[in-house]
Design goal:
Layout: H1 22-35, H2 38-45, H3 55-67, H4 86-99, H5 107-120, H6 123-135, E1 140-143, E2 159-163, E3 166-173, E4 184-190, E5 201-207, E6 213-218, E7 227-238, E8 242-243, H7 249-258, H8 264-282, H9 291-319, H10 328-351, H11 358-367, H12 377-388
Parallel strand pairs: 1-4
Antiparallel strand pairs: 2-3, 3-7, 4-5, 5-8, 6-7
Helix pairs in contact: 1-4, 4-8, 5-6, 5-7, 8-9, 8-10, 9-10, 10-11, 10-12
This protein binds flavin-adenine dinucleotide.
Flavin-adenine dinucleotide binds at residues 141-145, 150-151, 175-177, 369, 372-373, 376, 378-379, 382.
Length: 393
Amino acid sequence: MNTDVEVNTDVEVNTDLDDGVGAFRAEFSAWLDDNLTPAVVEAAAAGGGLEEGNIEILRNWNRTMADAGWAAPAWPTEYGGRAANIAEQLAWLELMSASGAPGAINVIGVSNIAPAIMAVGTDEQRQRYLRPMLRGDEIWSQGMSEPDAGSDLASLRTSAREDGDTFVINGQKTWNSLGRHADWCQLYVRTDPDAPKHKGISCFLVDMKTPGVEVRPLRTMAGDLTFSELFFTDVVVPKSNLLGQLNEGWKVAMTTLSYERAGVAKLHLNLRERLNHLMDDAKGRPAMSDPVIRDRLMSVYSRIATMGWTTTRELQAIGAGRQPSPTMGSIAKLMWSLTEQALAELAVDLLGLEGLSGRWGKNLASSRQTTIAGGTTEINRNILAEHGLGLPR
Ligand SMILES: Cc1cc2nc3c(=O)[nH]c(=O)nc-3n(C[C@H](O)[C@H](O)[C@H](O)COP(=O)(O)OP(=O)(O)OC[C@H]3O[C@@H](n4cnc5c(N)ncnc54)[C@H](O)[C@@H]3O)c2cc1C
């Protein structure tokens, strides 16, 4: 049997979305050719987010992109973006992925927090926070989850008490991504303990250097310190740092979580790149002729292709002015999580011991968190059952 199997894994999704974005694509492609260096690509490929050693190189790259208007093309031009339409955002994501260019270091800030500041923030807040966030000069985290409030976020208990021109915050958050690097936190707290639980929540922009804030990093099974626990003891925050209206934090949270729809396209593009890397690393291995392995390979390949088509169909619908599907986020999240884990396990069976160390070993350990991050698998299955299939609660 031929063990040197050639499989073309380039999952090309051919759509009409490219219409009219040739100039945009050419401009960004030329800019990448001129500016992206192998050192930057290497720092991104090393993984581990903002681990020491990588942070300055990734931050400098972030500034280069931001100053040229390429860090967040979806943002309005007045805040440093290009007001890119969905087809342009997709072209940008494809070129970023294909070139191995890392995105903005403020992943959560740029995609989730900034749109909320743009939507419900004051002019002063927009002027103060958006530019440093886009350049990566100030890093942001999002403080939602608590030890007893995760899927049921509205049960959160960290509180803020009004005191003259300030609020005084007490409580604990957990699983705070980027927490140990963060300069600012978009923090959700209870401001009215007597109101129904969704109604007594407010959102604050909290300077992490304020006295009373303690950050305790947590090490994950992948070896990274990507999360932290946050403790707030009598932390005084000015009233001007309230984002949106008092007791309307739930609306801010929903705004925050619903933005950057084209971002779902990133999920299949990242997977596609990794499948291509796996195929390169596995070339010529005996396992490549094992029919069970080949079957699993095709299953991962097909899932990635299906994710690409599903995303593209959704983006085309949004581009045509239709309402986004209420279940799209859950479908994308679930498919991403299942495919991440299938790919990680396949790499181990294809590469043997090599699949358990280095970048594939890290990939295997990291893939487990996708069951939980961004809404757990069970919660997403519930949403699909109720809102997609119309099943009873
Ligand atoms: C990589 C990663 C990054 C994260 N980053 C952040 C961050 O930056 N900021 C932040 O605030 N949080 C963050 N989180 C936390 C994340 O949002 C929570 O872990 C998530 O919401 C689940 O909450 P929980 O861990 O409290 O689990 P729980 O909600 O307690 O769930 C425990 C188990 O019960 C199941 N379950 C819960 N409710 C139901 C239900 N109604 N029906 C069926 N099953 C149910 C869940 O699926 C899960 O299996 C992050 C998590 C991960 C893994």
